């Protein structure tokens, strides 16, 4: 994908109205600190346009990045962030769920899982949600650079088994450090946009 323009167009907090976008949206979900904002930066060809942090809970709003005036990347707040109150957690959960339920332009939800860890109950819930709502799930196994090559195949199996994904589900190993996996993700997004254009 050739990135010509990127713009942080809309930032939604708990009480904000969601934008009525007319271009396809691609959302990135996953637990706090898994690398959503880092992945979005890589997909925008920008170093730190989306804000990232080594302490979890950095993204606390739903951020819509307008790409080339033709599609949106949607950066979601992470779930499973331990340091916030039950009340705040519930509000974020509602906000994410509301977005995922009510977005006619949402075309694909990428679920990010840290390649080093077994998926959590929250990850499984999110995966089931994606499937049950009729989206074709795409799993991105993040932080690939943290593993030795010899460990990768086994780690991917743990991710697959943990989520209970079918053989038809794509799992893309990705590293924000080396950008490995980026082309494959771009290709998926472009194919999806192109198939919409033909409808
Ligand atoms: N080594 C390595 N570190 C990564 C990678 N992706 C993200 N990180 C690091 O992991 C930390 C969290 O990354 P973010 O992109 O902020 O994670 P997030 O999912 O957006 O987190 P929240 O906004 O808190 O939900 C940062 O310190 C990143 O530099 C990766 O592929 N490799
Ligand atoms: Mg973030």
From TrEMBL:
Cell division among the record's keywords? yes
Q: Which cofactor does it need?
A: Mg(2+)
Location of the EngB-type G domain: 22-195
Which domain of life does this protein belong to?
Answer: Bacteria
- Annotated keywords: Cell cycle, Cell division, GTP-binding, Magnesium, Metal-binding, Nucleotide-binding, Septation
What CDD domains does the entry give?
Answer: YihA_EngB (cd01876)
The family database entries (Pfam families) matched by this protein are listed as:
MMR_HSR1 (PF01926)
InterPro entries reported for this sequence: G_ENGB_dom, GTP-bd, GTP-bd_ribosome_bio_YsxC, P-loop_NTPase
Keyword Electron transport (UniProt): no
Family that this chain belongs to: Belongs to the TRAFAC class TrmE-Era-EngA-EngB-Septin-like GTPase superfamily. EngB GTPase family.
Relate the protein's function as given in its record. Answer: Necessary for normal cell division and for the maintenance of normal septation.
Database matches in NCBIfam families: GTPase_YsxC
This one is known as Probable GTP-binding protein EngB
Q: Per the UniProt entry, what species is this protein from, by scientific name?
A: Lacrimispora defluvii
Query: Gene name, please?
Result: engB
């Amino acid at each position: 994908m050739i990135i010509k323009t990127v713009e942080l167009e809309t930032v939604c907090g708990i009480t904000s109205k969601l934008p009525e976008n007319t271009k396809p949206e691609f959302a990135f979900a996953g637990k706090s600190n898994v690398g959503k904002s880092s992945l979005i930066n890589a997909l925008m060809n920008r170093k730190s346009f989306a804000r990232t942090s080594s302490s979890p809970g950095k993204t606390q709003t739903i951020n819509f990045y307008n790409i080339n005036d033709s599609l949106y990347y949607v950066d979601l707040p992470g779930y499973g962030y331990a340091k916030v109150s039950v009340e705040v957690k519930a509000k974020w959960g509602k906000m994410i769920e509301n977005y995922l339920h009510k977005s006619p332009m949402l075309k694909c939800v990428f679920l990010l899982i840290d390649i080093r860890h077994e998926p959590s109950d929250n990850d499984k819930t999110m995966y089931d949600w994606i499937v049950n709502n009729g989206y074709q799930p795409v799993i991105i196994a993040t932080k690939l650079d943290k593993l030795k090559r010899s460990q990768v195949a086994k780690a991917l199996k743990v991710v697959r088994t943990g989520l209970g994904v079918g053989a038809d589900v794509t799992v893309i190993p990705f590293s924000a450090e080396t950008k490995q996996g980026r082309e494959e993700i771009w290709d998926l997004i472009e194919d999806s946009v192109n198939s919409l254009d033909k409808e």
